[in-house]
Specification:
5-stranded parallel β-sheet, 3-stranded antiparallel β-sheet, alpha/beta
Length: 224
């Protein structure tokens, strides 16, 4: 179902709702690009960690973002890898340390302003399926199709657990649950760009759906 029309499809929702996997499938089906906006906040966090920068100083973090180039490079298999100042950091940004510290960048207004600007630019140049927390509300309020993907908390924890185990990472299930509760709380309550369903987004509850079923459910709403 490839299209020549310029398309913006937003997929927002909490961690572990399956957004990135579903977004990748959708983008492939539609023959357009997948934008992983979480990877951008993660990349900046990785840089701050490497430099030993104070996360709780919003000015320092914003200045760091101003002096950083975050972009994506297409791999031979068609997937997009995030680059930090030219370096492919697709693997490094998935570490637990990055995951647990990304909320600092995500809550910093100056950082969000820059990220939102970069994301809008990408959306002007490319047709995209974009996943994040504020894509349908702040970044692309006029998107062609907006979805809010959710799943119950236990199911999201189980999915994340499986994902980490499959990647060969040692995980403490109880700790993971606490970390995810904490991330949810931070995502929903930050002052800028909080996770929120856009008024005109279609809610997709994937609790009892496989990836394939979720993609099919979303595709039912996409008329191009
Ligand atoms: O989707 P993810 O787990 O890779 O996101 C990493 C972090 O970045 C998470 O704490 C939420 C935040 N984020 C955000 O604030 N805005 C976005 N558009 C995407 C992610």
């Amino acid at each position: 179902m490839e299209t020549h029309k310029h398309l913006i499809i937003t997929l927002d929702g909490p961690a572990g709702a399956g957004k990135s996997t579903v977004a990748k499938h959708l983008a492939k089906l539609l023959g357009i690009s997948y934008l992983d906006t979480g990877a951008m906040y993660r990349a900046l966090t990785l840089k701050a960690l490497r430099l030993g920068i104070k996360f709780d100083d919003e000015k320092i973090l914003t200045d760091l973002a101003k002096n950083t180039v975050i972009d994506f490079t297409e791999m031979p298999d068609g997937s997009l890898h995030v680059r930090l100042d030219g370096e492919d950091v697709a693997l490094d940004i998935r570490s637990l340390e990055v995951t647990n510290n990304t909320f600092y960048a995500a809550r910093t207004a100056g950082v969000r302003e820059l990220m939102v600007g970069w994301q809008k630019e990408i959306g002007l140049k490319h047709s995209i399926v974009t996943d994040g927390r504020d894509q349908g509300t702040v970044v692309f309020p006029k998107a062609d199709f907006k979805f809010y993907m959710d799943a119950n908390f236990e199911e999201r924890v189980q999915r994340r657990l499986k994902e980490l185990q499959e990647a060969g990472k040692a995980v403490d299930a109880g700790q993971l649950k606490k970390d995810m509760q904490d991330r949810d709380q931070k995502d929903f309550t930050r002052a800028v760009g909080p996770l929120k369903k856009a008024g005109d987004a279609i809610v997709i509850d994937s609790t009892h759906l496989s990836i394939q079923q979720t993609v099919e459910e979303i595709m039912k709403h996409i008329q191009i």
